[in-house]
Amino acid sequence: MPLLEVCNVSKRFPGVKALKGVSLSIAAGQSVAVIGENGAGKSTLMKILAGIQTPDEGEIKLDGRPVEIRNVRDAEKFGIALIHQELNLCDNLDVAANIFLGKEPRTFGFLRRREMERRASEVLRQVGLDIPPTASLASLSIGHRQLVEIAKALASDAQVLIMDEPTSSLSTGEVENLFRVIRTLRDRGVSVVYISHRLSEIHHVADRVVALRDGCNSGELEKDQITHEQMVRLMVGRDLDQFFPHSPHEAGEVVLSARGVRVRGNGAYPIDLQLKAGEIVGLAGLVGAGRTELLETLFGVRRTLGGSVEVAGQAVRLQSPRDAIAAGLFLVPEDRKQDGLVIEMTVGENITLPGLMRASTAGMLPTRWEKTTADEMIQKLRIKTPGPGQIIQFLSGGNQQKAVIAKWLAIGPKVLLLDEPTRGIDIGAKHEIYEMMEQLAHQGVAILFASSEMEEVIGMSDRMLVMHEGRIAGELRRDQLSEEAIMRLATGATTAATT
Amino acid sequence: MLILLIVICVVTAVFRPRFVEPGNLANIIRWTSLYGVMGIGVAFVIITGGIDLSIGSMLALVGCLFGVTMAQYNLPPAAAICLVIAMSTLLGLVYGLLITKLKLQPFVVTLCGLLILRGLARATAGGSSVGGFSKLGYLINYEWGSVPVPFLPWINEGYWSFHKWIPSRGDQPGHFALNDAGERIGLDWYDWVPLHPPIIYLAVIAVVAAILLNWTVFGRHLKALGKNEQAARYSGVRTDTMVIISYMICTCLAGVAGVLFSIDIGSVMPSTFGNFYELYAIAAAVLGGCSLRGGEGSIIGVVIGTAILRVLQNSIEMWSIQELEFAVVGGVILIGVIADEIARRIIAARRARQEAALLEKQTA
Amino acid sequence: MLILLIVICVVTAVFRPRFVEPGNLANIIRWTSLYGVMGIGVAFVIITGGIDLSIGSMLALVGCLFGVTMAQYNLPPAAAICLVIAMSTLLGLVYGLLITKLKLQPFVVTLCGLLILRGLARATAGGSSVGGFSKLGYLINYEWGSVPVPFLPWINEGYWSFHKWIPSRGDQPGHFALNDAGERIGLDWYDWVPLHPPIIYLAVIAVVAAILLNWTVFGRHLKALGKNEQAARYSGVRTDTMVIISYMICTCLAGVAGVLFSIDIGSVMPSTFGNFYELYAIAAAVLGGCSLRGGEGSIIGVVIGTAILRVLQNSIEMWSIQELEFAVVGGVILIGVIADEIARRIIAARRARQEAALLEKQTA
Amino acid sequence: AIGCSSESNPSGTSGGGGTAKYDFPVTHGKYTVVALRSDSGNHDRAKQNAEAAISKYPNLNCMVGLYAYNPPTILRAVENAGKLDDIKIVGFDEDIETLKGIEEGKIFGTVVQQPFLFGFKSVEYLSALVRGEEVDVPESKIIYIPHRVIRPDNAAQFKADIEQMMAGKAPAPKLERDDYDTKEPVSLAFLTNTVDPFWDLAEQGVRCAEPIFNASCDVYHPPTASAEEQKRFIERKLNDDCQGLALSPIDKENQQTLINRACEKMKVICHDSDAPETNRLFYIGTGNYLAGRAVGKLVKEAIPDGGEVAIFVGKLEQLNAQERSSGVIDELLDRPIPPEYAIGGDAAAEAAESKSE
Ligand SMILES: Nc1ncnc2c1ncn2[C@@H]1O[C@H](COP(=O)(O)OP(=O)(O)OP(=O)(O)O)[C@@H](O)[C@H]1O
Ligand SMILES: Nc1ncnc2c1ncn2[C@@H]1O[C@H](COP(=O)(O)OP(=O)(O)OP(=O)(O)O)[C@@H](O)[C@H]1O
Ligand SMILES: [Mg+2]
Ligand SMILES: [Mg+2]
Questions:
Q1: I want to staple A464 with a disulfide (CB 3.0 to 4.6 A). Which of A282, A380, B142, D340 is the partner?
Q2: What ipTM was estimated for this complex?
Q3: Is the pTM of this model over 0.90?
């Protein structure tokens, strides 16, 4: 008998019907992977299970008995724990406090700190995080925070553990470790629901795959049926041909050259790098290796501590993103909600934001230009939106990411820095973004592209830089690319460059 | 909000006919204009997601300095006005720098500003009130024209009210149509409401501000930055500069308002002049649809918000319930905000239902 | 911050020896206690990321109601106190409900509160001031003990100051050690500073508040929710309830402060009583390290912040520069906040450099 | 009709001063008092009040401003409404603009107190008391400093006097005695009830007296006119070496304890506004009630044919406002002078009369 059963659940949001009669069942000790494109409704379904949202219709059964999960506390009572897609931690508290937030061991309302710290270090060890439970959360990298988030779910001793893209900011080693944790949990009889866009991971953890498409069940796969093609077909509804549309590019002149750039924090090692026009360069590394910091420094968000940057032969003083933008050096940031988009503004307004000043005369709004550009970009990048007047918040992740890229395409990039451009977006959208990168490279744009997904950096790069603890550990040509080679550099096993 | 304004006007007019007396209407217009200038200024800051708590103190400081420079250093009024407005704008620059460069919170900075400026105002005035603005009275009181407004005499004379006929004084002209012999044969159906310069100031400032906000890149950037500063910065908006400019606009307009208020009132008492005006300005902006979370706001909304507050106050005056004044004003703001929120929810719910129906139809 | 407090004390003591007069110190302690109660209340709200602008008006309303219920309805004082504090707590509940259930902004809600409560206070008092608290004076003025503080007489009599010896009045006891014949043989090296009940109230409230904030699940949740409400909610914290409770704590303490203030001052003028006290309370909390962004704050910090403000004010009075009072207070807050920010930056920079050096060493 | 409410609070708090509760409009004979409006000491409020009243009462004949800043604001409001011919203005206190208005014939007249004398006499008496000398105090413990009535004829002269005082060049008034012992320096305090030009004149009086009596006097104007500020000042003075205090209590009944505490430590007198139930030694100042009646007489002169009158004051919570306004109203309603004000008052009133004529 299934432990947890979801029957015909529906959920409406203003503008969309996120779930239309979805069903799902999980047996005790089973791990189920839920896959689907962006906006398919995976997270919504999970939030309903965790009591964060309430279903409009449908029923949830636990041990065959219908239950009503009205809030997080109810979910906890029923033994359901959710690791959120977005980080949900308080960075003014320490790690232990975060792990036990909402379920602190207490006597008469007083905290039992000692016990909390003891149990916290236990779960931290389980997830393979070697930090003291009293460390402040603010000092951790995103990856480590994600691990803390996982530890938090483990600490709740749940019967059903739901993981919504837990690996999106984890490195390979940490992912392996997570899989091990999942397997031991499963052996202990805990049910695991696992959501990921990294289809390769799913083989490792899933006993069964449930696919969603547009808020409906689109099929299930038993363990022995799980193949990449099958999953893609269930998610997208058709076969995808060659996944990485990579073709050799003509590398042109050097458009970006950084010499001795010292990045604030993480050691401030001088970094040299060169990018040629029409080249796609991958930037790999473990979590916290400093890729984001490097890209942000090149974009002028962080102050450099020294060194010089030249774009197309001209020295650029990087004081602020404006300087970088003026030089034709653009960044698609890692966190699109916070840094990439003004999510309460419309699609059109977002796309045209960086170009307004250039297109305007005497500071007046260039209304005509705005409209044509927005329409053009929406068409060109196939952004799925009712129109340029739609508030961008209501678009799915992949379409939001396309809009971020459209911002820069509208004003003609020389160098495009992409930081995890496919993080948390679905396979169809990913494919489109890869194609766009291809196109841009052929048009002579230099692309520097950081990603934690091995496959895609290997698949898309002409050349790869691997970072390790704040410095560039080595460079790999396309013919040298392999997971082993990258890992060797990324873990600092060999310090010598392989070129 | 416009509805609220009209409701208040109508209710007051019906029950207190003197409310529509041309002179009273002129007063309301004048006050609305003066407060409106202040409100527009603070709207800019609110749109960037900031706040300015120091407007009242700024008014006092500007008023004191204005008077003192004219009286003590014998500056010509024009120079004195330029000087004090330049000073207030400079203070905005200081605020902006503290907020953007030192990353202090606007609330804290302007709270300190509130105290410091008030202190400076008192020090400037040397403990007594400052006057000597009467020679500039024409800037406020010159009657440059008037507009005919229909029906006023009717309401005013009680035809439309639930009250008894109020005998008008015989020497009051304009209300009655006269026959050739000078006898009253009926009520005029319109009356002239005099117009004073402040409405021009407000109109000019409001139009400029509205253009700035809605038709220029500056305005777009301002809104973007108010909603998500980081994203705006990543898009190449000079966020720091914009914030600084918005504070400068705010304090500059506060300076203008300070000059106008001191001329209008005629004497500036440094310790009480402008007390709580910042709250009125902020309340007007909020009533007018500015969100304190930043990114939203319209100039016409602010003007309407100010008008609501002024009409309300006048109306309270007319009802002779001054003791409850604050309570009524606060209550109306609260009700306005709550109504706004509820209306928004209802609209959202209705739209959701419509969309659901539409979706259903599509799929069927 | 403690440093700032000590600096101000020492500077004042050196240049204005009368500052350390036991009576004056007792006054400072008393005022600090009263303001501190208010500050602790608002700290709770600030920690949740909210704000309460209505404390001053709350004080006025509580004071008026307190007086009126005692005088008009002949309630015994104890009952009246319970009644008004219950009422203020209830108002906190209303705030909390508006903020959490209707999702209104704390700034707007409490701004309306500021106006409404002030209006109600005036209506309650009916336009005149309210008094009759003198029979309860013992609650404030009963001298239950005193502490010896060393060196006071020395400073006081000018030994340590840069000023000339100030001839003391002969009838002032306690300063001099006398010989058997009653002649002065030298200065006592300590003096007794009298203690009044308010310090006990403050101590009790501060201890309870500190325990609540640092040692209980409630406090932990409060901080979590102040920093990241969504995370707290997703973790099963009853965020709405917590916010409501924090507003209730705030207004409850404001009610307590209102009772104490009205007893202490003895007369409550509804239109001015407590004006701007909310700003003092907020300033004290900010000086004491509460972040208006929420999630941070300590009770001892708030108490120190309040003490700074009180000492500063007293010191200003000692220097007879009352006109600059606001300016100095505002300036000190600003300087404190700026210094805090700069210190934080320096520390961060230094830590970064150290870590870099460490890394370098490791890799070398 | 709440605007009045100088009703005494049943708690026996303030609002005394013999004021009865009025229900506006009150009419007696030719005169109708339509409103009594207060502005909490805000000048902008004062002007708004005046403007609103002009609109609200179309048949207003006379407006009375009882705080120093009221008459000028009323004048501006009336001017702007173009009703200078319809509405007569009667003032109180000697604001420069009020005096100018009188000279120009726009304001009918004003009743002034003599704050300079408040300051001067306070220092004179206090320094004598502190040195243990005898001071002549009438039985009633009230020393009246007569008010004066200013009309267009004597306005110019009076204005000149004021300017001289403000410049600190005023001649010292006649001393009560000329055999004061002034060897020992004394330290005094002079506490007013708000910031106002009126009190600047008083301060000038204090400054003028300081060298004559070898006294150093700390003058404090509570900036927001609150009882709290006064309390803080007095508490500070209690711990000071201050020997004598002259104060104008803001809220006399509720400040009783405080004033009595001060009385234990030093010599305390009241000026401007009295607190008779306390142990203060005596009171120096104008009879605010009688001054109010003088204003009432001016009003009667201004509109001999009767009509509607509106009265404007600052803080109704304050005793001087209550006394002045009830003085005006009682005069207009032809009520008798209550006995408590009659004491010594007649003489003062006559003195005022004779001086102004
Ligand atoms: N709070 C919300 N308000 C409005 N719309 C929402 C809300 N949450 C989700 N949606 C919409 O519901 C749909 C389903 O979203 P959901 O987050 O469940 O997708 P998902 O499958 O998790 O996608 P992803 O892979 O990008 O995480 C999307 O179209 C999304 O825009
Ligand atoms: N704002 C910050 N404050 C303090 N430390 C930071 C900050 N941002 C990054 N770091 C630290 O810098 C190091 C590099 O982080 P960075 O985000 O550049 O790594 P990354 O390689 O991009 O990893 P990720 O996969 O998480 O994006 C990490 O150790 C992180 O803790
Ligand atoms: Mg999701
Ligand atoms: Mg990164």
A1: A282
A2: 0.82
A3: no
